[in-house]
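TL;DR need structure tokens for one chain.
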Amino acid sequence: MKVFDSVLALTQGGPYYASEVIQTYIFRFAFPQRYGNLTANPNLGYASAASIFVNVMLLGLTILNVMAIRNARRSRADHDL
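>> reply
TL;DR here they are.
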């Protein structure tokens, strides 16, 4: 999750999006590059929907992680008695 700046600076998503991460994917839709004289319109709705989806997934993983740690501490405390 912390490689956005490295990927953007080094490869900008790589050849044919090979090294693209979810942050560069969202960035590409929110801030499109200029192609010749035409300027691509930003798709902010799609970018915000993708970022909300990623944040909900991370929240779910965080909740699962907290629950697993609590269960491990409980079982360890029960075992130590």
